[in-house]
Amino acid sequence: MAGPFALIDRALNRSAAAAKGGYGGGYPGGKPRKGRDLNDPKTLEYLRRMHPDFDEVMGSADVDYRTRCHTDASFASKFRIPPVVEPQHTFREHTNSVDSVCWGPDPGTFISASHDATLKVWDSKRGACVDTLKGHVAGVYHCAVSGNKQMLLSCGSGQEKNVLLWRWPEKKIASVLQGHSRSVIHAAFSNDSVSAVTSGQDGTVIVYDIARGAATFRRNVHLGSCNGSSFCQEDSNLLISAGANGSLHFLDLREQGAPKACLLPSAVANSVSMKATLSIQGAHDGYAVHAVEFVDRTTVFSGGADHKLKRWDLRQMSPFKPRCPGQYLGHTAPVRSLAVSADKRFVVTGCEDGSLRIWPKDPLSDIRSSLRGMKMQLKDLDTDMQDFGRPAAERQAFSRKCDETKEIIAAAKKNEEQLSREGYTSAFRTLNGHVAQVSGCAWQEDSQLKAVSIVSSSWDQTLKLFNISLDDLK
User: Residues 428, 359: contact at Cβ < 8 Å?
Assistant: First the structure.
């Protein structure tokens, strides 16, 4: 049996050997590979030959995206401005900034929350306010509708009546949810409408049982305010929160019901603890995270003050080296809100500069899937072209079609290489119209799945409605 200090002794012996030059410098298998010396002219010549954009990349390597947006006048020209869409209608009746918007329980309606301490129900077709809900004692920061269309949740400023649960269609307050001693910034329902989560200015996340109107989970997860939280759409036991301290915090609500293994004598003796949570510190280059959506068990979208929308793949997470496989660049101010389409193919973001952008969820995967399909099609065309039993004119048509498919495949491969090399995605559309920060946005497709309606709220005290054909987003 090894001694109790065997690992420490081994490390000390390895360090001593390294100091003497033995054991291959203290590394298994010999010395590690020597890094390139950037002061060596031959190394620089080699790197410039292998990487034509070496000087440009190295010149901005220590400057983040947000800083370059503010200081480099030519930087924005590298990101094309997508085609611009103007709003179909503008809604004005709030007397203070509008902080949130969501599609309502009734078809063709949406609900807005404002700093004027009211919620308003709007008819999107008539372009008019049809009802005003009062109950908060101060500004209303956020609102959300349950999946079963029977409840509305709103939260806002103040130490009392800061989380209200409304019955629908009665539009009456069903209960005042207790637990937060300071302002509540964000509220959301679980996909099954059984639970709700609220995010407080003090960094606290509280989960409520809607039927009982009681808190079932409470935890302080962020230093500073918690700007938002979201249930996983596939599993209501999973939750993510976004903080002003720049972190994303994952929670498994089943953790609190697990056996207290850390209290067992063997666990205490060995200093073992059980924690089923994961945090991503500095998720947006150290800047605040303003919005988050837990799309499925493996995918999370977040928007932050670094001007970026990011897509996180939880299958590639590690506690110390989280990897972000998708970055969406083009905004030149902090991303304050986001919404994901029902089919999870598109994301819309709202920005502090008053614009919104529509993005593809995962364009690289889409291109690769399209390439596989085109290669199979090319193989079938080659087979038909080699069938000498067909008329010559028909085989010539197959040959022309084969050449066209090869050109399309070559263009698709070029796009794939560019996306893989640059590592960021461009937007499909820009939605203009607001003159102040876009505080909220919501996505809804029509029953034929041919068009999408996007409604946005802003600190300019207005709401905008945009209608876009889904065919234009291909």
Answer: yes
- Dist CA 289 CA 218 (whole Å): 21
Q: How far apart, in whole angstroms, are the C-alpha atoms of residue 316 and residue 437?
A: 33
Chain Cα centroid distance, residue 21: 49
This model's pTM is above 0.90: no
| pLDDT at 340 exceeding the cut of 50 | yes
Average pLDDT over residues 441-446: 94
For residues 205 and 226, is the Cβ–Cβ distance under 8 A?
A: yes
CB 311 within 8 A of CB 300: yes
Q: What span, in angstroms and rounded, lies between the C-alpha atoms of 164 and 211?
A: 14
Burial of 49 (0-12, 13-18, 19+ CB in 10 A): exposed
Mean pLDDT of all residues in 90-101: 96
Side chain identity at 215, as an amino acid letter? A
**Distance of alpha carbon 132 from alpha carbon 262, whole angstroms:** 51
Helix (H/G/I), strand (E/B), else coil: 61: coil
Cβ distance 439 to 350 under 8 Å? yes
The β-bridge partners of 327 are 310, 424
> Read out DSSP for 385-413?
HT-TTS-HHHHHHHHHHHHHHHHHHHHHH
Number of H helices, E strands in the chain: 8, 30
Q: Which secondary structure element, helix H or strand E, spans residue 141, and what is its range?
A: strand 140-145
Both tokens assigned to 11: 């490390």
